Amino acid sequence: MYVKNKCLVATLLLSLSAPSFANIIVDTQNVDTEKYHADMYECQALSQQVDHTQTDSLGRDMLGSTAKGAALGAAGGAIAGSSGSKGAKVGAGIGLIGGVLKHSSQKHHAEQEYTEEQQGVMRNCMVGRGYNVLN
Questions:
Q1: How many Cα atoms are found within 13 Å in the side-chain-facing hemisphere of 94?
Q2: For residue range 24-64, what is the model confidence (pLDDT) as tens digits?
Q3: CA distances from 116 to 9, 15, 40, 120 (A)
Q4: Deepest of 25, 32, 47, 80, by most Cβ within 10 A of its Cβ?
């Protein structure tokens, strides 16, 4: 009875948890369903140990890009013969947008790598437990 309840809880937790294992396809022919769900739960728990590094560079990117943009805008304005402060403002705005776009790209890339690493842990764990993982 205890094992059956444990597997029922594991199945419920699997259905409610993050889809880090959603792309793992296992051939369940001739597989004990209770053991499969328990193993899947344990492998999913292991995959949660993957280090999820955040991209915290937004402030640095914006500050650096704004400063560079302001300097380039002021220099461009001076060369064109207009007021340096107007060119600096335009350059700073362009630099700010560039910093935000760069940060967004880095964050997307980090999330993609995190998901792929979790998938790899899930796959290796299930293969290591003797399951035939199809993908």
A1: 13
A2: 899 999 999 999 999 999 999 999 998 877 655 555 655 66
A3: 27, 20, 17, 6
A4: 47
A 10 A CB-CB count for 45 gives 13
Mean pLDDT of the chain: 74
DSSP 50: S
**Token code pair at residue 92:** 């700073």
The alpha-helical segments, DSSP class H, found in the chain are 2-16, 33-47, 58-80, 84-128
- List of residues 6+ apart from 52 with CB closer than 8 A: 114
Kind and range of the H or E element at 133? strand 132-133
> Are the C-beta atoms of residues 74 and 90 closer than 8 Å to each other?
no
Quick one: 19 exposed, middle or buried, by C-beta within 10 A (0-12, 13-18, 19+)? exposed
Percent of the chain with pLDDT over 70: 53
> Tokens for 44?
């999913």
Residue 88: burial class (beta carbons within 10 Å; 0-12, 13-18, 19+): buried
